[in-house]
Design goal:
The structure holds two protein chains of two kinds. Chain A is built from 15 helices and 19 strands. By secondary structure, chain A is α/β, with parallel strands linked by helices. The longest helix of chain A has 17 residues. Chain A is globular, with a radius of gyration of 21 Å. By secondary structure, chain B is α/β, with parallel strands linked by helices. Chain B contains eight helices and seven strands. In chain B, strand 3, helix 4 and strand 4 form a beta-alpha-beta unit. The chains are: A alpha/beta, B alpha/beta. At the A-B interface, strand 1, helix 2, helix 3, helix 5 and strand 8 of A face helix 4, helix 6, helix 7 and helix 8 of B.
Chain lengths: 466, 202
């Protein structure tokens, strides 16, 4: 019987059905960062448990690292304490850590693929909701909480309910100046921030096939913002080429066998799904959020929806959003003045993101009232971008060029909005308070749109600048 | 390690209304910079409850009438966003022992299960009635009965939805899953031996 990737990979990793009906699922790759792991390691100590597969867990530091100077000790004493705790834990339990001294540090969802750790047909877990990113390779990648991190450390398994699978077909070709970020914002807008509850999303169709691996990561990354348990793309030659020669890629002599396995787990033609949804990529325009969740998004051509157009149960969130953003119904989003421009985060901090943004920025200047900065997703991205001279393009235009980390995507390090600043941001969440100021305002958009907004000092249509 | 059996929760209700209340609102990220969960109870809904200068805002967690409440009632997609277990930890450490909502975000509900905090869903009309009742009768005791999948208040009874797997874990006291997962050591070995990527793809 034809089967979809999700069911194949799930069955391969299913240890048993638990008495309560959940699946005991084996986790092939476990990634750890400093924020959601210390309590899990402590629970192991309290229970006198060891890490059962220490060679299948890898750690890095991303949320709390400063992006200006990363010299130790960090000037933030709490951040330094968390860093020390992670170092203590990985040493005690025998786990490999990619810290800043390794030149392989970065946002956990950037370095997993970059190091070749992330591969098709795996189950991947990390104490971070954006773990869904790794699904771009055709893996089941699940964000988990700290007690589940404990379970993975102790048993390499989690207890989990099996979700249903929704195929999302992205038909047609994207226009110039329209990107993966616009695709996923459109999907979340259409299906809602809770539309994916209980589902895994399979992204397919011409637009997905045309995307490179980094763009596919952007789409899968924000699956969680649509409420889905995870998102994935079927692996193809682009996937295999991306993995070739990476540090943890299969060895040369095994690579053909690996590809054979990877092909075998892709969804079969005529595979069945629990649900189906499609969007048309060819009519898609750049998307921008106007509210306080990623579903409150609109195309650059539209105006902020009117209360009359809202469904009854959307009105509360809608009204709160307008109050917080201090926007009016019917306002265009185009032309909104911005204070901060941020290019970075696990959604959009990879080479292709920086290249697209640099094309727009080259030879221009950041608007004088805008504080603009670029935070590469990893030390390796930073190095590659510098070898291409992208850092110089950004710096010459007036962007700050920073070190790798999560930065202002979330208010856990030195990078924060102040007061009610408006940030054009290539990150993934526009929640109230998300960027470190309770009154701060976030407009999510593609890196190209952020770059164009930084130059113009206001939200503009990236298609006019590519 | 067997965890506590959770069969019935009795307590006063507290209302946090609004759809899509995300985990950044439940606990702002800056309070995650601690290596234990011990203090998380101090930070629940922090920025919703306090101005930057420390002055209190209007929020149910600040209201005297809801002091000591243990059954939180919320709307749709409660706990969306980040996977931070700090969010349910902050609620539990503020005295919350069960959450009733229209719906929950997946990871949040999973995190609640892992710490023995029951989550149950009820449809909108009933949630609204329940919220109104609690607002007007904050000292009334509600009873969440997992056996009957029923919430009793004010001489009336509401059926709630809870997956059988969650209900079983809570009632059997197996929600702390580590020991359950450890039981299957031999089955884990079998999976390891059949995974191509752990065996050089042979």
């Amino acid at each position: 019987m034809p089967e979809n990737l999700f069911n194949k990979v799930w069955d391969l990793h299913s240890v048993r059905i638990l008495p309560n009906g959940q699946t005991q699922l084996f986790i092939g790759l476990h990634l750890v960062h400093e924020v959601t792991s210390p309590q899990a390691f402590q629970m192991l100590r309290e229970r006198n448990l060891k890490v059962s597969f220490p060679q299948r867990t890898f750690a890095t530091v991303d949320h709390i690292v400063p992006t200006k100077s990363q010299a130790r000790p960090f000037s933030d004493v709490l951040a330094e304490k968390m860093m020390k705790e992670l170092e203590k834990n990985v040493n005690e339990f025998g786990i490999k850590l990619f810290d800043t001294s390794t030149y392989k540090q970065g946002i956990v969802h950037v370095i997993g693929p970059e190091l070749g750790l992330t591969q098709p047909g795996m189950t991947i877990a990390c104490g971070d909701s954006h773990t869904s990113t790794h699904g771009a390779f055709g893996s089941i990648a699940l964000g988990i909480g700290t007690s589940q991190v404990r379970d993975v450390l102790a048993t390499q398994c989690i207890a989990v309910d099996k979700p249903k699978v929704r195929n999302i077909n992205i038909k047609g070709k994207l226009s110039k100046g329209v990107y993966a970020k616009d695709v996923i914002l459109k999907i979340i807008k259409e299906l809602g921030v809770n539309g994916g509850i209980g589902y895994a999303y399979e992204y397919s169709g011409e637009a997905m096939q045309n995307m490179g691996m980094e763009e596919r990561m952007t789409v899968c990354n924000m699956s969680i913002e649509g409420g889905a348990k995870c998102g994935y793309v079927n692996p193809d030659n682009k996937t295999f080429d991306y993995i070739t020669n990476r540090i943890f890629a299969p060895k040369k002599e095994n690579f053909e066998d690996a590809v054979r396995f990877w092909k075998s787990i892709a969804s079969d033609p005529n595979a069945e799904y629990d649900d189906y949804f499609e969007i048309n990529a060819s009519t898609l325009a750049p998307m921008v959020t106007w509210g306080i969740n990623p579903g409150q998004a609109m195309s650059i051509e539209e105006t902020i929806p009117r209360i009359l157009d809202m469904k009854e149960d959307e009105i509360d969130t809608y009204s709160l959003a307008l109050r917080h953003m201090r926007f009016k119904e019917g306002d265009p989003i185009k032309g909104k003045k911005i204070d901060v421009a941020f290019i970075g985060s696990c959604t959009n901090s990879r080479m292709s993101d920086l290249r697209e943004a640099a094309k727009i920025v080259e030879g221009k200047k950041v608007s004088p009232h805008v504080n603009a900065f670029v935070v590469p997703g990893s030390q390796q991205v930073k190095k590659a971008a510098e070898e291409e001279g992208l850092n110089k393009i950004f710096s010459d235009a007036g962007f700050e060029w920073r070190n790798a980390g999560c930065s202002i995507c979330l208010g856990m390090n030195e990078d924060k909005l102040t007061g009610d600043e408006i940030c054009a941001s290539s990150s993934n969440r526009n929640f109230i308070g998300r960027q470190g100021s309770a009154k701060g305002r976030t407009l999510l958009m593609s890196p190209a749109m952020v770059a164009a907004a930084a130059i113009n000092g206001k939200v503009v249509d990236a298609r006019d600048y590519v | 390690m067997k965890s506590e059996k959770i069969i019935q929760i009795r307590g006063k209700g507290i209302v946090v209304s609004g759809n899509d209340i995300d985990t950044d609102r439940i606990i702002p990220a800056r309070y995650l910079k601690e290596i234990t969960f011990a203090n998380m109870g101090n930070y629940a809904f922090y920025d919703e409850r306090f101005e930057e200068n420390g002055n209190m805002k209007k929020h149910s967690f600040n209201e005297d009438k809801f002091k000591g409440a243990s059954i939180l009632v919320a709307n749709k997609n409660f706990g969306c966003g980040s996977s931070r277990e700090h969010a349910p930890q902050s609620l539990m450490r503020s005295g919350i022992k069960a959450i009733i909502a229209e719906s929950f975000a997946d990871i949040f509900a999973g995190n609640c299960r892992m710490i023995g905090l029951p989550t149950a869903t009820i449809k909108l009309e009933s949630i609204q009635k329940l919220m109104n009742f609690i607002e007007n009768n904050p000292s009334e005791i509600l009873v969440v009965d997992l056996q009957k999948k029923e919430l009793a208040y004010n001489n009336s009874k509401l059926n709630f939805e809870m997956s059988n797997s969650l209900r079983d874990s809570l009632m059997e006291g197996t929600w702390d899953s580590t020991s359950v997962l450890l039981e299957a050591k031999d089955d884990i070995k079998k999976v390891v031996s059949r995974l191509p990527y752990l065996n050089n793809f042979t």
